Amino acid sequence: xxxxxxxxxxxxxxxxxxxxxxxxxxxxxxxxxxxxxxxxxxxxxxxxxxxxxxxxxxxxxxxxxxxxxxxxxxxxxxxxxxxxxxxxxxxxxxxxxxxxxxxxxxxxxxxxxxxxxxxxxxxxxxxxxxxxxxxxxxxxxxxxxxxxxxxxxxxxxxxxxxxxxxxxxxxxxxxxxxxxxxxxxxxxxxxxxxxxxxxxxxxxxxxxxxxxxxxxxxxxxxxxxxxxxxxxxxxxxxxxxxxxxxxxxxxxxxxxxxxxxxxxxxxxxxxxxxxxxxxxxxxxxxxxxxxxxxxxxxxxxxx
Length: 303
Description:
Shape: globular
CATH architecture of the largest domain: 3-Layer(aba) Sandwich
Number of strands: 12
Strand content: 25-35%
CATH superfamily of the largest domain: Class I glutamine amidotransferase (GATase) domain
Distance between the termini: 26 Å
Oligomer: single chain
């Protein structure tokens, strides 16, 4: 089944070329079913790339999904054309009276800043509070996960001596959760961040279960028992070359950055990297949509 997007969204052409089932909003209006209403708060600087990555995952399930792209009003993007934002994005105030079946809060390359120093932090806290009443299940990714754990549960982040960048093996902790259905006992996933949250701090909340961890990269996946809040500290949505692009960008700026771990064949930055986490990413998002959103949300949307 398709993910429904505006007809002119650039990601639509890319996904159609990959044979991902996308449907224009015009055609979807004639379908006699209720699609899942999913909001994406896109905080990443390269918004078009992130849209494509997330829509690729959302479009690979038997469920019809209608996406609303959101941006912060209190921060002006310098890397995405204003025309794109005005054409395809809404601000939080424009949707604050709506209810959504699911929501994705992306990461942002600001993890070294104290949360209160982020220019849109007051707006971010309003959105996070709103998700608890107006969204059935919210998936928080990377900095989005850190922000939500801090705001909702007081879990702090810790700066690391060297950027956590690469593709790392993870293992399940043994805590059962519907979002883990079909997971291998060990799986790979990418990380790209300068800060960490400690699994022990998350478990100490008594409200969030740690579901998967990495010996090298730390906590990866956590969730509340009811599935209404999911926290992913890595980037299962990344393309095969995303870490390479980040590494070359940082190296080109003269920054001292390590080669992403377990990523390039032979640890050679000149080699072409392979995606070894795609199936895990597809399964994670499919489980979230099915187990945490579709099976829990009422057919009739809330007023």
